[in-house]
Design brief:
- The protein is α/β, with parallel strands linked by helices and about 240 residues long.
- The chain has a single domain, classed as Alpha/Beta hydrolase fold, catalytic domain (Rossmann fold, 3-Layer(aba) Sandwich).
- About 35% of the residues lie in helices and about 20% in strands.
- It contains seven helices and eight strands, in the order βββαβααβαβαβαβα.
- The protein has an eight-stranded mixed β-sheet, with helices on both faces.
- β1 and β2 form a beta hairpin.
- α3 crosses α4.
- The two termini are about 25 Å apart.
Length: about 240
Amino acid sequence: MPTSAEIVIDTDDGPMPVFEALPDGEPKGAVVVIQEAFGLTAHIQDIARRLADDGWRAVAPALFHRQGSPVLAYDDMEKVMELMSQIDAAGITADLEASFDFLEAAGFSLARMGIVGFCMGGTVAFVGATLRPLGAAVTFYGGGVGEGRFGFPPLIDLAPALQSPWLGLYGDLDQSIPVDQVEALRAATAKLAVPTEIVRYPDAQHGFNCNDRPAVYHPTAAHDAWQRTLEWFDQHLGP
């Protein structure tokens, strides 16, 4: 049976809490799981466990550790926006680098290391795939496509720096990420040397993968997107 625990990774700005899930037996590789805008929610912890069920060592860093690592209610958008305004590119980059360094020290090469993110974490996962040549990266409804977030350039402009095979998963009913921006990102990533793919779900909203949010959860899209994620990792994370 996979096991899970709360651990700590040291960063330039102090200790960062991390939720870790370990598979039963030798892991196929390792995946960094990047949180939603609500923190290390039960959903994000479940994602890590599901990856461990599939044979991956999963680590989910708390990107709000400088603010005390809160986990917010899904309807507390005022607090969400406040916290998101307090994180920036320098801090996010430091946290990503610390997570990658931790896994490298644990014996995982970059080729066996992946990243997946949800909501704001989808944006961060894309950024992470520009920092190092990871084996694979997956973005679930990550914003900042046409307008930069957290001090990073728009993902469309950042695309040429992508070093990792990247899969993007978006809902057409996502009011925060217009379809035309998704298609512009498809065009920007299609020119790259690394494999890329974007999948759109016509009836899905922002957050469609989160089964803890009945108002936005879309079971059909969520199931398909998750299967594609596992297949992407199996295909691209090398020995």
